[in-house]
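Sanity check

After download, print the first record. It should look like this:
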Amino acid sequence: MFAFTRLRSRTEIHRDGIPEAIDGLDLPGGSEPFGGYSYTAAAYILAPVNLESLADDLHHHLDGLPGVLASASAPAPGPCVVLRVLATGAPALYRALNLVRDATRSNLDLPAPARTVS
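Expected structure tokens:
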């Protein structure tokens, strides 16, 4: 059960005055709204290239990851991927986020990160 009264979050990402992603979360406290998944995360990936194939790759890599329920999608053709993760614990969440970061860096031909999240 969550120990907060309410958790509210809103994220807006604009590029050149045009919204790329508008996302929100509003959770009442004192309950377990995610069916046993007690950790949640959102990630937004933006790059000056079409990221639809990255969204498909991330969705495929996250499917079946133990302790994780996640999805990645490109809201429209173009430079943005939105990712949502539910996890049963911190280690599962970190595995998912590290996988996303590594796959994204590889897809964009960027060097490996200096360290992993643990």
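If your output differs, re-run the checksum step. Summary of this record's structure: Residues 6-107 form a domain with the TATA-Binding Protein fold (CATH 3.30.310).
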